[in-house]
């Protein structure tokens, strides 16, 4: 464990935690501009969070420790993933642990804890949101596992740091059929897991159409701030992972301050690019009917499966 | 989609320029943090005030640029925007909504009905103005009040 590794790991957590709300602000600002409005500015989610952190959390009557623990666990797992995944550098102190299955499992722990909190409130909307979230998670997890597994076959490892490092050094892989199938699958997965259109509408006020929002209706004050903050971090985690797998340029594969700086700038630029595409794309689509969401996600699973098959045959063919 | 893009380009920005900031006076410690989550509560309105509130959040007035956002839950809210004269059926829901919001919450009575029952004063189903049920911090006069007046009151809360 080198000094560079430790610095990188800490830098990644701070960077992802700080950028999360700003990315949400950028998405809202882009939408406002396209709609002809002025918008609240990209720092508005941070203003909301700082205000919420100063407000009292209310525990609704009949709720248990699950409701209090859930935001902390959600935040903890999100930050853990932010350390593990190679966003800025593949030479982080935690690179050996950045296993694909660990990352997916950590994300799933956050999802499950939040659904338990939704059930714990005992309200109709909390339970409804929890059941929808689990339905979607059950379809998202195999898709993301298959998709990244397809990328791990050429690299010969399920370690994300190894996969990204391999893609930096061997850029012929980036335009391969495997890559193209996986990019579509991972994009669908990101939209579903982060609760964006067309799977879930983050701006809705209508409880009947909510998924993520329905589970957090009972949260207030600093508990709500933690949930909202962690949700924005999850968006950065998923968008950043997709971005780094398909545009791996700039990720530091060597130790050194300059490489780290390039890594940070490249990560922010990629995030901004993917965020802009997402934010403007969302203006042109409507939310899917709930019963069509499984069809979309099943499509992602099929694409992931095809990518695994293609990767297997291509590796066999070339080797 | 091409038609939509053409229209977006032609229309451009439609929000009117922001009027000068009102004179701010501090209400509570959450006021002037640059952010206010608003829960709208209709306790017996004729929907006139609702149309004006919707206009305030629309593209022309765009109250969101001052840090105001509507929420779906009173637990998320800093501000309760109450419209209409309080009717018997909604007296208890209004009190529950007030108690569900984390303290300190700011109650804004929107429109003449919320202030003094307006034309519905003395009606058999009417309990009274909003201030009879929950404490009111800001009152907005008008039947219905103009969006600009609603926005001026909300800017008092966000301090922007």
Q: Main interface pair? A: A-B, 34 and 33 residues
**What's the alpha carbon Rg of chain B, rounded to whole Å?**
17 Å
Element order of chain B: H for helix, E for strand: HEHEEEHEHEEH
How many beta strands in the DSSP annotation of chain A?
A: 0
Remind me, CATH topology of chain B? Answer: Rossmann fold
Give the count of structural domains of chain B: 1
What is the percent of helical residues of chain B? Answer: 25-40%
Structural class of chain B: alpha/beta
List unreliable stretches of 5+ residues of chain B.
none
Q: What is the approximate shape of chain B?
A: globular
Strand content of chain A: under 5%
The overall pLDDT average of chain B reads 89
Strand arrangement across the biggest beta sheet of chain B: 2-1-3-5-7
Give me the oligomer status: heterodimer
* The CATH architecture of chain B: 3-Layer(aba) Sandwich
């Amino acid at each position: 464990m080198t000094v560079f590794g430790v610095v990188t790991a800490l830098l990644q957590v701070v960077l992802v935690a700080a950028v999360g709300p700003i990315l949400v602000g950028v998405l809202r600002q882009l939408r406002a501009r396209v709609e002809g409005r002025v918008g609240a500015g990209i720092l508005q989610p941070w203003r909301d969070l700082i205000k919420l952190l100063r407000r009292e959390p209310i525990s609704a009557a009949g709720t248990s420790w699950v409701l209090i623990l859930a935001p902390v666990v959600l935040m903890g797992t999100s930050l853990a993933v932010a350390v593990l995944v190679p966003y800025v550098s593949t030479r982080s102190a935690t690179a050996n642990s950045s296993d694909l299955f660990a990352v997916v499992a950590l994300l799933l722990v956050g999802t499950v804890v939040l659904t338990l909190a939704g059930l714990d409130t005992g309200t109709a909307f909390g339970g409804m949101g929890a059941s929808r979230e689990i339905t979607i998670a059950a379809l998202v997890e195999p898709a993301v596992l298959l998709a990244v597994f397809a990328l791990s076959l050429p690299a010969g490892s399920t370690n994300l740091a190894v996969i990204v490092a391999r893609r930096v050094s061997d850029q012929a892989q980036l335009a391969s059929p495997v890559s193209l199938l996986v990019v579509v699958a991972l994009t669908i997965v990101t939209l579903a897991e982060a609760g964006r259109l067309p799977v879930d509408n983050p701006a809705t006020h209508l409880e009947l159409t909510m998924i993520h929002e329905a589970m957090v209706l009972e949260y207030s004050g600093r508990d709500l701030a933690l949930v909202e903050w962690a949700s924005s971090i999850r968006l950065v985690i998923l968008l950043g992972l997709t971005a780094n797998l398909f545009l791996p340029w700039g990720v530091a594969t060597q130790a050194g301050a300059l490489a780290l700086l390039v890594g940070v700038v490249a990560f922010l630029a990629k995030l901004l690019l993917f965020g802009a595409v997402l934010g403007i794309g969302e203006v042109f689509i409507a939310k899917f009917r709930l019963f069509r969401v499984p069809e979309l996600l099943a499509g992602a699973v099929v694409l992931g499966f095809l990518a695994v098959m293609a990767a297997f045959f291509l590796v066999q063919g070339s080797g | 989609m091409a038609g939509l893009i053409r229209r977006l380009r032609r229309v451009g920005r439609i929000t009117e320029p922001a009027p000068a900031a009102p004179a701010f006076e501090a209400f509570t410690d959450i006021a002037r943090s640059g952010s206010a989550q608003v829960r709208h509560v209709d306790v017996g309105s004729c929907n006139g005030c609702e149309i004006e509130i919707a206009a305030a959040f629309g593209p022309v007035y765009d109250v969101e640029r001052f840090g105001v956002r509507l929420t779906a839950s009173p637990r998320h809210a800093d501000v309760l925007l109450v419209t209409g004269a309080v009717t018997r059926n909604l007296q208890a829901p209004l009190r529950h909504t007030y108690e569900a919001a984390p303290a300190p919450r700011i109650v804004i009575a929107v429109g003449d009905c919320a202030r003094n029952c307006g034309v519905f004063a003395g009606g058999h189903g009417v309990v009274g103005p909003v201030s009879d049920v929950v404490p009111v911090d800001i009152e907005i006069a008008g039947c219905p009040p103009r969006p600009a007046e609603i926005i001026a009151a909300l800017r008092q809360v966000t301090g922007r």
